[in-house]
């Protein structure tokens, strides 16, 4: 008879009821004086109360399931059981390296008429990064300075900056940082002149350049949660983010599994859209990219060695990353950014641009509180400031200058904002090429390698 | 006023019980011995009254042992309250650029009372104030003997963050009830676990509010506190002695703490690589003690539902141990759906008791396998 057994509880309840009613019934007969009667009263009252208490305790225990068996209550404090595998392991966590594919390129700065030597020129790698937690994928370029390859620096971890392009056309091309801003070239020049420390630049596109891979999320069956609904996963092991974007279109239909409707879509904003299986762009930059890069290169462990740089429409993205993930990014720079939430999410914009689908619900899950918390100005005004060094750069005149002023005026320690307003007109990376040395120098000054 | 957990309250209730019983047996019995309905009603009232005193006594005693509620205000707070308490932080030009930590000795709480740290290890108490969140919490840290030994002076140890259930008004719950330092010492001595640094915390940031380790929209940013502020605080307190990357960081917790551990690992795989959920739930709670954690949004709540995440988002590259009981554990159905939805690269293992309730006796049984499993999955440097 275990304490959670209904028959047992019922029995005790019956006994308690009988004793309780019995006590009420026998009560008048025990009235009067005399030790014998007194003893009988104590006995009757005690027995009925104990039975009632026991019944109530058992019912409460049954309801909350504190103790399921007597052994739970009185048994030993140790138990022998074995750890069992729930689903096949694929070698613990080391599948991560499959999330990023690297190919060396000749896009890096090099001396004329000489074969490129990474130890002298540095190197630019082309990367295909697939997000472990977001299912987003993008092409990126990493500039590794010469020092990265020099044997005397083998134990060193150079600082790293994620540079996110933005704006329209060539300014947000996958080669925008290399061809328009000539970032590797400028960084190499300053480095060679000993004006800066060597810094690794990982050059990425804005959210428009991120693509939702079509491998359906794993699950036990059809889910009914909106557009990500996928059919039953016939082959669980093939699901998940490690399925590269190249295999998606061919292998999926063969399994009889439709890719999720969000496949091939691009996030509309540098946010994490709540309640959606897609559009987690912020986590892509904050979690997935650092996770993939740390597996590939020797990078700093501490946030003092990580920076983020955002141009134009990605300026807000860089600021947001540093403000929400300051344990990852200790330094940030924005070029010609606008920080109003409405700039990140223009009214009426959907969470994702899923082709052939009507506009989705708003990217804040319909919550005014959640929306408010995504507003960087509101955060500056209402939340503890993050420990970040930030450079806010805006061209002369226009909305960006007002935004930079407002951002800088709201910043409080330990958030340190430095503002520069160079006389640059134009909102393309090519137009800002002249400012790259100043920005690179500032980043180099703030960042710390290990 | 007598404290909710004081012996005074228990003695007071005992005195009341004795007085009521004596009064009834010696004086009241004869008066209520009549045949009329009034006398019968009186008898029923007396029986119910005595029972009420007994039940209050029992509840007080159980609460004193388990410390569900540490004070009367905790008890009242649990009845509900506002979910937005974020105040505008005061401007502080000298604000520190890192989380603030005050270390005090708590050696008497560890194995061998910490007389010889190089042999027994050492328990310390930390007061942590998060720089990013402004939240304050305390932690008890158990440093293994190897931390103090010369031959391992250059070693960086793995760190495991233990988060208790809600409310864990007993600040020492991991030490008094969980016996974590002793158990860690035992497993280490038996060579079943490597030396690790144990950081033992509670999920309760504000009394009477079960925040489920969430970044509450417009409220306390508890997820950020545990995923960013606490690791930073631990890293800066034990400089050069803790693992620097995810492979060396793990989590564990029971009940709500189990949910917290799993959620933090799934949402921050760049920081943590393994988590053990001991009798934890996997869906997103919403009740009077949690108040509104999701900005009144079903979508935000879904994002906090770990089963929903497995079914709708890529599987995060972390390892999870589900420690639960096949019978008697009310969170088991939740654990079962979680395990059924898990696919690689998420790796899930389970450790099942045939039977065990949602009580500390069962939680304590989950602790040894949690320690050895975490030890198997984490790497020092």
Task: Give the helices and strands, then pairings.
The complex is a heterodimer of chains A (450) and B (381).
Chain A: H1 6-26, H2 35-64, H3 70-74, E1 84-85, E2 100-105, H4 118-121, E3 123-130, E4 136-144, H5 146-149, E5 160-164, H6 176-180, H7 183-192, E6 200-204, E7 211-212, H8 248-254, H9 281-296, E8 306-311, H10 315-324, E9 331-335, H11 341-344, H12 368-374, H13 376-382, E10 389-393, H14 399-410, E11 416-420, H15 436-446
Parallel strand pairs in A: 5-6, 5-8, 8-9, 9-10, 10-11
Antiparallel strand pairs in A: 2-3, 3-4, 4-6, 4-7
Helix pairs in contact in A: 1-2, 7-15
Chain B: H1 7-31, H2 37-66, H3 72-77, E1 100-105, H4 117-120, E2 122-129, E3 136-143, E4 159-163, H5 173-176, H6 180-189, E5 197-201, H7 222-237, E6 249-254, H8 256-267, E7 274-278, H9 298-303, H10 306-312, E8 319-327, H11 332-341, E9 347-355, H12 360-377
Parallel strand pairs in B: 4-5, 4-6, 6-7, 7-8, 8-9
Antiparallel strand pairs in B: 1-2, 2-3, 3-5
Helix pairs in contact in B: 1-2, 6-12, 10-11
Structure commentary:
The complex is a heterodimer of chains A (450) and B (381). With 450 residues, chain A is an alpha/beta fold. Chain A contains 15 helices and eleven strands. Chain A has helices at residues 6-26, 35-64, 70-74, 118-121, 146-149, 176-180, 183-192, 248-254, 281-296, 315-324, 341-344, 368-374, 376-382, 399-410, 436-446, and strands at 84-85, 100-105, 123-130, 136-144, 160-164, 200-204, 211-212, 306-311, 331-335, 389-393, 416-420. In chain A, strand 8 (306-311), helix 10 (315-324) and strand 9 form a beta-alpha-beta unit. The longest helix of chain A is centred in the first third of the chain and has 30 residues, at 35-64. Chain A is elongated, with a radius of gyration of 32 Å. Residues 216-258 of chain A have low confidence and may be disordered. Chain B has 381 residues and is an alpha/beta fold. Helix content of chain B is 39%, strand content 16%. Chain B contains twelve helices and nine strands. A nine-stranded mixed sheet of chain B has the order 1-2-3-5-4-6-7-8-9, with helices on both faces. In chain B, helix 11 links the parallel strand 8 and strand 9. Classes of the chains: A alpha/beta (450), B alpha/beta (381). Chains A and B meet through helix 1, helix 2, helix 3, strand 1 and helix 9 of A and helix 1, helix 2, helix 7, helix 9 and helix 10 of B. Strand 1 (84-85) of chain A pairs antiparallel with strand 9 of chain B.
């Amino acid at each position: 008879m275990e304490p959670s057994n209904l028959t047992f509880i019922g029995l005790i309840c019956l006994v308690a009821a009988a004793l309780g009613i019995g006590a009420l019934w026998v009560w008048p007969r025990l009235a009067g004086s005399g030790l014998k009667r007194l003893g009988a009263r104590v006995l009757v009252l005690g027995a009925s109360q104990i039975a009632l208490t026991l019944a109530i305790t058992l019912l409460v225990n049954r309801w909350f399931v504190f103790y399921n068996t007597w052994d739970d209550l009185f048994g030993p404090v140790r138990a022998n059981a074995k750890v069992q595998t729930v689903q096949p392991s694929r070698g613990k966590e080391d599948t991560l390296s499959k999330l990023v594919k690297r190919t060396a390129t000749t896009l890096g700065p090099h001396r004329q008429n000489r074969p490129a030597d990474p130890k002298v020129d540095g190197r630019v790698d082309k990367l295909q990064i697939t997000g472990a937690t977001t299912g987003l994928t993008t092409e990126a370029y990493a500039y590794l300075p010469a020092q990265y390859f020099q044997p005397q620096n083998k134990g060193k971890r150079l600082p790293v900056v994620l540079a996110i392009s933005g704006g329209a056309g060539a300014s947000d091309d996958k080669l925008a940082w290399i061809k328009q801003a000539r970032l590797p070239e400028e960084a190499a020049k300053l480095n060679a002149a000993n004006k800066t420390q060597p810094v690794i630049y990982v050059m990425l596109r804005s959210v428009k350049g991120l693509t939702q891979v079509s491998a359906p999320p794993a699950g036990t069956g059809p889910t009914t949660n909106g557009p990500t609904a996928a059919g039953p996963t016939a082959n669980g092991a093939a699901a998940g983010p490690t399925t590269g974007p190249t295999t998606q279109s061919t292998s999926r239909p063969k399994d009889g599994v439709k890719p999720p409707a969000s496949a091939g879509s691009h996030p509309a904003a540098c946010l994490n859209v709540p309640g959606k299986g897609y559009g987690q762009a912020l986590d892509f930059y904050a979690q997935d990219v650092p996770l993939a890069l740390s597996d590939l290169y020797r990078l700093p462990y501490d946030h003092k060695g990580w920076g983020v740089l955002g141009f134009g429409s990605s300026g807000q993205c860089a600021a947001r990353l540093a403000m929400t993930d300051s344990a990852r990014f200790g330094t940030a720079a924005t070029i010609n950014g606008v920080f109003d939430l409405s700039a990140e999410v223009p009214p009426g914009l959907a969470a994702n641009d899923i082709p052939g689908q009507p506009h989705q619900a708003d990217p804040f899950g319909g919550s005014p509180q959640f929306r408010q918390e995504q507003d960087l100005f509101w955060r500056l005004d209402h939340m503890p400031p993050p420990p970040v060094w930030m450079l806010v750069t805006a061209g002369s005149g226009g909305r960006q200058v007002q935004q930079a002023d407002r951002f800088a005026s709201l910043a409080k320690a330990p958030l340190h904002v430095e503002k520069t307003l160079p006389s640059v007109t134009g909102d393309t990376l090519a137009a800002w090429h002249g400012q790259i040395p100043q920005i690179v120098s500032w980043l180099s000054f703030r960042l710390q390698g290990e | 006023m007598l404290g909710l957990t004081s012996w005074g309250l228990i003695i007071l209730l005992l005195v009341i019980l004795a007085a009521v019983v004596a009064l009834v047996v010696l004086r009241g019995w004869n008066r209520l011995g009549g045949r009329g309905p009034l006398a019968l009603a009186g008898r029923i009232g007396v029986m119910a009254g005595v029972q009420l005193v007994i039940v209050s006594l029992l509840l007080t005693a159980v609460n004193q042992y388990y410390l569900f509620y540490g004070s009367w205000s905790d008890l009242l707070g649990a009845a509900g309250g506002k979910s937005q308490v974020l105040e505008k932080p005061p401007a502080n030009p000298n604000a520190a650029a890192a989380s603030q930590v005050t270390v005090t000795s708590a050696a008497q709480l560890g194995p061998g009372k910490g007389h010889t740290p190089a042999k027994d290890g050492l328990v310390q108490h930390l007061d942590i104030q998060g720089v990013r969140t402004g939240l304050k919490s305390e932690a008890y840290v158990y440093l293994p003997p190897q931390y103090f030994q010369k031959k391992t002076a250059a070693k960086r140890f793995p760190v495991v963050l233990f988060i208790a259930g809600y409310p864990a008004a007993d600040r020492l719950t991991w030490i008094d009830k969980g016996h974590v330092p002793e158990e860690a010492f035992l497993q280490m001595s038996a060579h079943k676990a490597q030396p690790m640094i144990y950081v033992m915390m509670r999920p309760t940031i504000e009394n009477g509010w079960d925040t489920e380790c969430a970044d509450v929209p417009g409220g306390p940013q508890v997820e950020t506190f545990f995923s960013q502020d606490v690791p930073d605080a631990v890293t800066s307190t034990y400089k050069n002695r803790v693992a620097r990357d995810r492979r060396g960081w793990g989590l564990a917790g029971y009940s709500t703490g189990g949910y917290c551990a799993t959620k933090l690992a799934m949402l921050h795989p760049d920081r943590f690589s393994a988590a053990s959920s001991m009798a934890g739930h996997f869906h997103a709670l919403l009740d009077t003690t949690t108040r509104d954690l999701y900005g009144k949004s079903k979508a935000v709540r879904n994002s906090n539902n770990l089963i929903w995440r497995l079914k709708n988002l890529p599987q995060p590259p972390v390892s999870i141990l589900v420690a639960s009981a096949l019978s008697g554990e009310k969170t088991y159905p939740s654990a079962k759906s979680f395990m059924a939805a898990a696919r690689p690269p998420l790796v899930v293992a389970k450790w099942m008791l045939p039977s065990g309730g949602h009580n500390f006796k069962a939680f304590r049984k989950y602790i040894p396998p949690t320690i050895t499993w975490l030890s198997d999955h984490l790497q020092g440097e």
